[in-house]
Amino acid sequence: MFGFRSDGKRVKNIEPFMKIVPHIMFQRNDAMVMKTETLDCSKLDAYILNKRREEGIKIDYMDIVVAAFVRVISLRPKLNRFIVNGRIFKRNNIQLSFAIKKRLVDTSEETTLKLTFDGTESIYDVQNQIHDILKENKGEQKVNIVDKLAKLFTKGPNFMIKWTVRFFMWLDKHGMLPKVLLDASPFHTSVFLVNSRSIKMSPVYHHIYNFGTTGTFVSIGKETYQPVVTNPNSNEFSVKKIMELGIVIDERICDGLYNSLSLKELNRILSNPNILDQKNNNVVKDED
Terminus of the chain with fewer CB atoms < 10 Å: N or C? Predict the structure, then answer.
């Protein structure tokens, strides 16, 4: 309340233009900037194959992408800011949410999961968290806290559901939403990720939810084979396996140059995923 929240600390020393931006663009869907990042799968495949042959570890694309975003946010902390009620906050930790189907059939229920990191994690730490939480939640009989809360809040008639959601949004706006709900909510997260590749779908530009504090939405698309220019001087090209990420960012949390340099850092890591083998002992703190 009054600018204080349990999930973040208010940033006060902000450039005047960035300070006024949240009062021009009131909601996240006013401030969405969309970008496609194209990844060369040959480097990712070589890394995955090496891990399997040399270490007997099965790493997949999602493990790498999640670990890369955790690493980038740990080095570029302004990406972990969020806007509530016209105020800019820095998040207490790095969080990533994603939705899963309990079974890959139309009739299966969908649930959402959230992971929390401190930024020091190696890809092995990230992979263990992902696989553990997936194991806990796969299967129609598995119920997590998000499922329980959703079931509880939707027991009443439609007008009660609408009133409850509006009330929670008002509490969140004024920093009074209980910590237990903030911890459980997949909408209060650094990054919300959807693995479109798992259903053989191209990436999408997914809107950022107005409820919650999500700053970035990422969609991992299926692999495709595309012609790529290898020598522009002689018009030479080759066919490569490509994977695209659809990225949507709330532009109010940091300026365009900071976003651009952050995406370059993401590409640097994904071009050489061996970087992620080691823990990050140089986490950058978000200073006002």
Answer: N
- Look up residue 118 and give its two tokens: 């401190």
**Pairwise pLDDT comparison (155 vs 222), residue with the higher score:** 222
Phi/psi of residue 112, nearest 5 degrees:
-120, 145
pLDDT band at 184 (very low <50, low <70, confident <90, very high): confident
Can you say whether the dihedral through the CA atoms of 184, 188, 190, 194 is positive or negative?
positive
Helix (H, G, I), strand (E, B) or coil at 265: helix
Question: At residue 34, what are phi and psi to the nearest 5 degrees?
Answer: -115, 140
Please list, in sequence order, all residues whose beta carbon lies within 8 angstroms of the beta carbon of residue 192, skipping any fewer than 6 positions away: 96, 97, 98, 186, 206, 208, 209, 214, 216, 217, 218
Q: How far apart are CA 107 and CA 272, in angstroms?
A: 40
Structural domain contains residue 283: no
251: domain CATH number? 3.30.559.10
Q: Which amino acid is residue 240, in one-letter code?
A: K
